[in-house]
Amino acid sequence: MTGHVVLRAGTYSIRVARRPLVASLALVAAALALAFTALCFGASWSHPGEVLAALAGHGDSVVVVRDWRLPRVAAALVFGAALGLAGAIFQNLTRNALGSPDIIGLDAGSYTGALFAITVLSGTSAQLSVSSVAGGLAAAAAVYFLSLRSGLSGMRLIVIGIAMNAMLTALNSWIVLRAELEVAMAATGWSAGSLNGVDWAELVLPFLVIGALTLLLVTLSSGMRQAALGDDLAVASGVRLNLLRLLLVLAGVGCTATVTAVAGPIVFIALAAPQIGRLLAGTAGVALMPAALTGAVLLLAADLVAQAVFAPISLPVGVVTTVIGGGYLVWLLVRRAGRT
């Protein structure tokens, strides 16, 4: 599917490629269908008419639908989009499909920061958020400085990131083993990555942070596209590469750490969503919009599976994303091996 479409709103118009537009609309439709299915699904199945009435504030299922199920659906969509954006950022920076926060140690660093808040501090929401961001930034800084010879690109950074991820995972295990039993049990359960029990009160601040980071990425998207064409061309077109990369790293770590602070480390969405979105949209590089929409669809679908497999017991969504991500990683490696 080739060609472009011109979208107009009053005196403003924008020219977009047809295939990415169609892919994005299809992903939005899939997300809406999954969201409505998730609102119907629970301990008992709710009739679609009953769900629509509850969303309008009528009927006996208002509390169940609007206060219990809707926050979980919203969290899956927003957190999935945030992880998709984080993956797109780092895959663009490293120019490698393996350049994902959960592969190069940023997720593990955010989890280390969160464990510090849980085991040393009192573990409040604010402490979890700040510590997660600090841990992720520390891991990103360590990976960057250890791979200065190649900047933020190449297999060197990926290999160093994998080593950093292994070391931080070992550190996290040590922290959990040294903690008191109740704290260790809570930290271990939380480390699987779960949307169980989320409510509106704990989602307001993360949604605001992710919204602000998304706006930042919108302003950086033009420079990001120029940088994808090569450093020399980007500098010649006026892009300040060092500042751009710093802001992108901050945005990527912020997205990952915000999700980790609320739901724990949810792995492989950031790895798979950008590449699946790129294949669907047919873009040369990793585009932000398809990556975000694909991440939202993947996480919501995984959460539905997590609720349905052993219903009425709900699994942590991270268990399902690990299975999906493992299969994706095998496929990616086989696909790359076939090209050589």
From TrEMBL:
The domain of life is: Bacteria
Stated membrane topology is:
Multi-pass membrane protein
Query: Mind listing the UniProt keywords for this protein, alphabetically?
Result: Cell membrane, Membrane, Transmembrane, Transmembrane helix, Transport
The subcellular location is: Cell membrane
Q: Which InterPro entries match?
A: ABC_BtuC-like, ABC_transptr_permease_BtuC
Q: Where are the transmembrane segments?
A: 21-45, 73-91, 103-122, 128-146, 158-177, 203-222, 243-273, 279-301, 313-334
For this chain, the family text in UniProt reads: Belongs to the binding-protein-dependent transport system permease family. FecCD subfamily.
Protein name stated in the entry:
Iron chelate uptake ABC transporter family permease subunit
